[in-house]
Amino acid sequence: MGAVESTEGEREPLLAPSQPEAREQPGSSREQPGSSREQPGSSRVFGRRWVVLALFSTLGFLQGMVWNTWGPIQNSAKHAFGFTSKDVAVLVIWGPVGYIPWLLFVWLMDKKGLRTSLLLAALLMVLGSTLRSVPIPDLQLRRWLIHGGQLLNGLAGPTLMSAGPLLSTTWFAPDERATATAVASLFGYLGAACSFLIGPLAVPAPNDTQVVNTVTHWDPGQIRTHIQNVLYTELGVITVFFAFALLYFPSRPPRPPSVAAARSHQPVALGSISLLCLFARSNVRFLMMALAYSVPTGVVAGWSGVLDMVLTPASVSQVDAGWIGFWSIVGGCVFGVAMARFADSVRGILKVILVLMLAGASLAATWFTLTCLTRLTHLLSTKATLYTSCILVGIFVNSSIPIFFELFMETVYPVPEGITCGVVTFLSNLFTGLLLFFLTFLSTELSWLNWCVAGSCLFSLLLVILFRESYDRLYLDVFVSV
What we know:
CATH topology: Growth Hormone, Chain: A
Oligomer: single chain
CATH superfamily: MFS general substrate transporter like domains
Number of helices: 21
Order of helices and strands: HHHHHHHHEEHHHHHHHHHHHHH
Helix content: 55-70%
Largest sheet: 2 strands, antiparallel
Radius of gyration: 23 Å
Shape: globular
Number of strands: 2
Number of domains: 1
Structural class: mainly alpha
CATH class: Mainly Alpha
């Protein structure tokens, strides 16, 4: 597959092997974890790693759910709060805007560890959800508070969306890393998926709703009350899990789970310089993969955030659009974890997996785009075809995210995981922000959005095909440790 060989210097053992006389004898007393007398080459995984992963993933889930609150109920939000299509697009943009100070959060992760970074992210989520939930009658001021709350929630994104590979390297063994990365990085998308389900089911659409043989007219006050109940519920759940993280969320285990986890990473400043050097190198390998990841994931994230607006011209209701968005992201999460588990079992085939995923995404996105242009293409446009093509786009693109992350870690090792994923997720959110920025001016006809999705998947597929992978981190864990 054209993998690039690592240098001899990179293959030298990084940890001194345990001396035979230092091994624990039967019946001898066991040193406490973290004791200075422990052998530096020892490694171990702890059962508590699953608690840490579950807590981190749940907060990521809640952050994604809050970010995607307004897109699935955009018709109801317009009716209840006087939002326009431009306002809804801006509410979604606050997620990418929160990535502007990403380097500050990466520095905090490197200097203070995962615990401090996660607690700050959770606190920002609590403050943002509180700001959105203040029940004041002045709708103009209320809209400003909602915007402010979405921005604070967006500021939690750099930690929750980019720290997954750092958590998996810090806590999990090499044969579990891809799976842990998949769970940690995809739960935020699963939260966004649940917004597609919760919003339309909990908040009535402003159009008349048939109930038996009567017609129910929802006035703005009633819709506003339903939205307020959703905001209160999200605030309560976020506060509970912030308290859990405050009580227990260690930055690292007493002993590293692998050689790569034990090796000292470069500081953030040096890691940033290393990444700049990677950008400047003639083979531009990191730049290729950064664009291959950020362009399709950023475009699809912006597209899915306004999926209701995209599907409205195709006569798809708010509830049906919510179900389509829900299953596309849920399918991507399930398929992504399954592929990550497969990558853990059969190592060294990350590029092959990405090529297959992106080829499927390109075909599905093209099918969906042409189906929406049925007046020109005369393709059959039914609920089944729209459901299938749209869901397949979400499955293939979202499931590629953890595979991309693992390939990034192999490509730039030993640059810190936080800064590497911080860069690529920042670029992804930059493309999301650009897409939604243009949407604020081009909101009357949205077929160009579908073409952007298809084009981004094809562009990414071409870059991945041309990319030459290497597995230096895997080499350290599999061969050097032995």
